[in-house]
Amino acid sequence: MMSSTMKKLIFFATYNEAGNVASLIQGIRKAEQNADILIVDDSSTDGTLEILEGMKSEALTLIVRPSKSGLGSAHLLAFKYAIDHSYDVLVTMDGDLSHDPADIPRLISGVGDGSDFVIGSRYAPGGACDYTGYRKYLSLLGNFVARQLLGINLHEFTTSLRAFKVKSLEKIDFSTIDVSGYSFFLTMVVRAHLAKFKFAEIPIHFHERNSGASKIPPLEIIRAVKQLFYLLYVKRFKAA
pTM of this prediction? Predict the structure, then answer.
């Protein structure tokens, strides 16, 4: 299927991203004029909601949740929305402009070329990441360890810049996924691998967030390590 004939949905989640959302939406509309946009906001308090309400249109759906409910659950909501509304391809990304909307067409093309799951990779050959200091080395180490332990031939396990063939998502029982934080992205790679998805990676430039503060809590690193070893167990048990 050619990407021009696909029914496309672009998703990102927000919480206090007033400095980023307008530019991000404009970038998405420029990159994919025929795509719909889904935004899940966890009751931002900095004016994000007012900006989003002013930009709503037939092609932009805003779902507001009453409180912070976790990034993983927001993505699960997007998966269900894409399936229920019969989209062909779903693209997910961050809401802070760390991902360049100009990369979206390349992700969608990967699905059009036959992949079930396309990852925008900082660490694939040709990719780049603006992290410096300990964040850079922690991210590199985390992805390296995940690749070695899980035995999945990918360079990138933890970014949210991804495209999915929506029909393939129907193979996964999302009711059994209960990971609310950033470990969700690692979990989805393992679950997609067990469901025999065809993966592809495209190199991307990951930028520092444009505005606002990082939402990653300090304890998330510990949770991610625990989740990695749990997923190693799941992968070996399920594959046995």
Answer: 0.89
